[in-house]
Amino acid sequence: MLKQPIFIVGHPRSGTSLVRSLIERSEHVWSIGREGKPIWERDSLHPGRRGWHSNALDASDATPEVAARLNADLLAAARKPGAEWSVADKLDFLDFLSAQGLRPHYYDVPLKALQERFPGDLPEGPPTTRDGGELDEITPFCFPSRGERPTEAELASGIRLVEKSIQSCFRIPFLRALYPDAKFVFVVRDPRTSIGSLMDAWLNPRMFFSYQVPVPLRIQGYSDVFPWGKEWWNLSLPPGWQDWVDLRLAEVCARNWLTHNRAVLDAARELAPTGDSVLVRYEDVQADPVSTMEAVAEAVDLPFSDAWGRRDLPVVMTQTTPDPDKWLRHASEIRPVLPLVRELAEEAGYVGL
């Protein structure tokens, strides 16, 4: 069974993968090692089965049948966090997958290393099922955990699972109904770097495709740039997304930041009196991972690990080295949309935008 699962919640490109990787250094946790979309959105929980409204779920969606299925799937996927994959390990594994006919260029490996191992033209466009439909998992595809499965005895006494999915911002009532003893780690990030990173994700020709939506997209700077830009939505599907389909890409990304973080800050405020949550800023994780993780460990009831006394940070879900100034590549597009997010940014501690 699951006990006190730890849900890491934040908007796409906010640093949730980094925080998850740091928590996974604890010997007391288990992980599914990747985004949970294939588990959470099976069958009736997929937005396509819910009128394409959004990723939002509430407590009424946590039926006994749904709870039993999700619990079984999460336990089946649980592994001990294994040693982090090196680039060489990843490439060797992709050699094996490539021999089976899969395209390695959709996996999270530095592009230069991929091109050196797999020369030739790079594929472009969303990876799809055989009939051209949406895959369960969002690219960049992750590498499976190499850790051990829990034993029957460990399952019987209960395991602590760390889970991170970008759609969780809109599912806090649902998750709390499923797991009343859950702990939450909320992550926020400067809107300028977030919007820039979101734009990079939308403009990536191989990654971050999530939903083949039935609503025509006319997003300037995306739909008029790529042939798939008229039907493929990227990353999570927030409430209100259908009102954004005629906007410029920078404004779509700004409204993404605003909608996700409004949900995050509201949930963090609601849960603060319970002691079941902690709110962290990505920039604090980068600047002082030791102190930040000490606060996280206390909030989620984990012993502070020696592994968190290290200042080194894993690099996750990125094709290039993290750089707080990367957003400046899109500065002329981002600066005009900052007034949309300024009030909430100040609430989150980001002033002077």
Automatic annotation (TrEMBL):
<dbReference type="InterPro" id="IPR027417">
    <property type="entry name" value="P-loop_NTPase"/>
</dbReference>
<dbReference type="InterPro" id="IPR026634">
    <property type="entry name" value="TPST-like"/>
</dbReference>
<keyword id="KW-0808">Transferase</keyword>
<dbReference type="GO" id="GO:0008476">
    <property type="term" value="F:protein-tyrosine sulfotransferase activity"/>
</dbReference>
<protein>
    <recommendedName>
        <fullName>Sulfotransferase</fullName>
    </recommendedName>
</protein>
<dbReference type="Pfam" id="PF13469">
    <property type="entry name" value="Sulfotransfer_3"/>
</dbReference>
